[in-house]
Amino acid sequence: MSRNNDRNIKAHNDKLHKSQDKAKAKKVAREEKLKTILKKFNEAKE
User: pTM above the 0.90 mark?
Assistant: First the structure.
């Protein structure tokens, strides 16, 4: 019996993609925060 059966591969890929999606969402949220902070900073400067 092989450990690399379809069910195990699918479970692994699902975990992998879930963690990749989380990382991507975190990056996007961080960029959005940076944009708002920059906007506020630039407005305060003027």
Answer: no
